[in-house]
């Protein structure tokens, strides 16, 4: 999750999804990693294309982006969109 301390939508995601996400099958498949877009990007994420908007959820496997969700429009949209992205994983998503 690329985020910013000044991002209201990031804060909303952390309030609505953040508490339950670690206990989901989705989290076992795609653990959440928080990255501040204003900080130096970690070396293992250098191949991820630039991020402009927050939050941006980049699904990364072996250092390469497989899928991306830009923005957060509420939990009713987040879960199905995340499922669509997880389906793009080359080796599937173990449950």
List the helices and strands and how they pair.
Blueprint: E1 2-3, H1 8-16, H2 25-29, E2 35-36, E3 56-61, E4 64-70, H3 75-86
Parallel strand pairs: 1-2
Antiparallel strand pairs: 3-4
Characteristics:
single chain; 4 strands; globular; alpha+beta; two-stranded antiparallel ribbon; 95 residues; 3 helices; two-stranded parallel sheet
Structure description:
- The radius of gyration is 13 Å and the shape is globular.
- It has 95 residues and is α+β, with helices and mostly antiparallel strands.
- The protein contains three helices and four strands, in the order E-H-H-E-E-E-H.
- A two-stranded parallel ribbon has the order 1-2. Strands 3-4 form a two-stranded antiparallel ribbon.
- The longest helix has 12 residues, at 75-86.
- The chain has helices spanning 8-16, 25-29, 75-86, and strands spanning 2-3, 35-36, 56-61, 64-70.
């Amino acid at each position: 999750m690329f985020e910013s301390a000044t991002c209201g939508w990031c804060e909303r995601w952390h309030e609505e999804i953040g508490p339950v996400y670690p206990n989901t099958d989705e989290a076992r498949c795609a653990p959440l990693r928080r990255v501040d877009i204003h900080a130096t990007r970690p070396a293992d994420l250098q191949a991820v294309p630039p991020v402009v908007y927050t939050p941006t959820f980049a699904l990364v496997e072996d250092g390469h982006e497989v899928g991306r969700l830009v923005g957060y429009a509420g939990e009713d949209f987040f879960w199905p969109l995340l499922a669509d992205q997880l389906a793009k994983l080359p080796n599937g998503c173990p449950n």
